Amino acid sequence: xxxxxxxxxxxxxxxxxxxxxxxxxxxxxxxxxxxxxxxxxxxxxxxxxxxxxxxxxxxxxxxxxxxxxxxxxxxxxxxxxxxxxxxxxxxxxxxxxxxxxxxxxxxxxxxxxxxxxxxxxxxxxxxxxxxxxxxxxxxxxxxxxxxxxxxxxxxxxxxxxxxxxxxxxxxxxxxxxxxxxxxxxxxxxxxxxxxxxxxxxxxxxxxxxxxxxxxxxxxxxxxxxxxxxxxxxxxxxxxxxxxxxxxxxxxxxxxxxxxxxxxxxxxxxxxxxxxxxxxxxxxxxxxxxxxxxx
Length: 294
Prior knowledge:
Blueprint: H1 3-7, E1 11-19, H2 26-35, E2 40-48, H3 64-75, E3 83-88, H4 96-110, E4 115-118, E5 123-124, E6 127-128, H5 132-142, E7 148-149, H6 153-160, H7 167-175, E8 181-187, E9 194-200, E10 205-211, H8 220-233, H9 238-259, H10 270-274, E11 281-285, H11 290-293
Parallel strand pairs: 1-2, 1-3, 3-4, 4-7, 7-8
Antiparallel strand pairs: 5-6, 8-9, 9-10, 10-11
């Protein structure tokens, strides 16, 4: 790491769900970022006893006026200059999106090269699991201002409004999604029985693949967004960041699955965040915008 990078603002504001038990939302992102050396300001958008996938339970969503007031406090915090990135994930309600956008603007006004990464947590292969106005707020208010977005394929499909059955269609949708860098998880794979993370930016299209692990625990998307952000903030080029992020998340997933865990066991596998040993297949794909730029 260069001296300039070492002296750069390193704190990350993470805005997502909080569960009492488990490793999803802020529980995954905060642990990963702090384990990799980045201080975190954590803002809960909703409080839950456990991930809703484990069964119905109490949902505590902060009253919107109080949530906005807290976010406004952060905007005027005397330590705002410490912040080098903002990561937003699951929102408790649509109105929270405007407060997130306002905070992102304040951070960028203070530190122009700060990074905003939007993980538009809204659904999976079973459809939306947030209210449609919340999904629309993420798509229309947060995606356009993001530097990086990390939707899964189904979230990208919903935002694009068309099926995305193959890599070509996923890349085309990613190119038009708004953010200059798109990291699409659960992307179609070119290996049998595999799944991939597709990274598309202005100059390259990369696919990192590994085998599918059936019935995975929740939190993989939250973890992927946080680890990729940490890699980028550490100065890694996109290709290395994609490969090492995919390897870390896959390794933690595989180890959790082998133990029969119903939640990612980040505390047990913290070493995998910084020094993953898992092998992933990395491919260079033809950039979908290349023909138009020629």
